[in-house]
Design a protein that fits this description.
Length: 219
Amino acid sequence: MTLQALTYNPPQGQADWQLVALHGWGANAADLVGLAPYLRLTQFTLVFPDAPLAHPQVPGGRMWYGFPWGYDFRQPHDFGQQPDLEASRQALRTWLKDLSQTNQIPLEQTILAGFSQGGAMALDVGMELPLAGQISLSGYLHGPVAAPVSPRPVLMVHGSFDPIVPIAKAYEARDALQAQGQSVTFHEMAMGHEISPPIIGLISTFCEDLRQSRGYTQP
């Protein structure tokens, strides 16, 4: 199981950090790559992988794993027992490690982000890797969360009126991460299941502040 990806390099200069963004259920890499120029991250390579599995109902859509028929996030479900999720976890872990070797940007200078199902994957797989930071947009947890292998901040953004992933799932995720000692910046916004323009600014600020806090400055 391999992952294909779209890459956006800064127009000028040499990137020394990278942002990897995972799309949601039924979308694909092209769904997020359009955000790249608006993020204005001039020292970041931005990478947008396709999920490994074809979506059964959306032509051209991809998914990290399937949902049970009729699932609406309002009843408990043990995602950890799904073989398709475990296969995607392994594929994403391997791909991220290979990516850092290919472009010579270490995982310690990598921020892993995701929207919706991609946000859940970012929170899940990201804990096992020595990342610089994680971002979950309209995301959730697959289940109990373990402490990350290294300290890193987490940015979470969720809509108060999200009709897909209820805001209660974001509260649960925030509280679980904080219980593991993680530094979580949480923004609840008056919106639905979306990436609104103000969120682009939050992502840019989080990424650049984290980069500069590690001693990297603008050229």
